[in-house]
Amino acid sequence: MADDRMADIYAAVRLGGFDPAAARAALTRLWDELGEGGDPLHRCVVAHHLADVQELPEGALLWDQRALAAVFGPGIPLDEGLRGFLPSLYLNLADSHRRVGDFDMARMQLTIARGHLDVLANDAYGAVIRAGLAHVEAALESQSMERLPAN
Predict the structure, then answer these.
(1) pLDDT surpassing 60 at residue 53
(2) 1 has pLDDT over 50
(3) How much of the chain is helix, strand and coil, in % rounded to 5?
């Protein structure tokens, strides 16, 4: 990791694998430290991962929306680093909307996610995102609001 802040963020994210409450606390602390004027990439990554450790789907949706807002804030140039997150951000928004029962919005977010797939390489990360799209779409077809198993 090129900067210390990203190292702090990913240390907090790793907590989520065995202690989601500790990850939530650490990521929330980082979010507060970054503040409104913080680096957009840092804010996006923190919010993106905070969504993953929420207990309720409404909380996940809120943090997914904040992650996307960090990318599209006023005066923020959409550079390649931020652009590379768009398929995942829209996928997560689709899943969160599905989990709160807003199936129409979930479908729309899936469509937007697919529209950004061109930024993904044909690598393991791209495969995870593409598989995630298929999983969320299948859950939508069955109108499931259950949390999908982690990949």
Answers:
(1) yes
(2) no
(3) 70, 0, 30
What are the backbone dihedrals phi and psi of residue 76, each rounded to the nearest 5 degrees, phi first? -95, 120
| Cα-based torsion angle of the residue sequence 87, 91, 93, 94 in order, rounded to the nearest 10 degrees | 140
Quote the pLDDT of residue 123: 96
**In this predicted structure, which of 3-7, 63-67, 140-144 has the lowest mean pLDDT?**
3-7
pTM of the model: 0.92
> Domain map of the chain by residue range?
1-76, 79-150
The terminus-to-terminus CA distance of the chain in angstroms comes to 23
Round to whole Å and give the CA distance between 140 and 89. 17
Give one DSSP letter per residue of 104-140, joined into a string: HHHHHHHHHHHHTGGGS-SSHHHHHHHHHHHHHHHHH
Mean pLDDT within 69-73: 92
Report phi then psi at 38, rounded to 5: -65, 165
The token pair at 97 is 């909307």
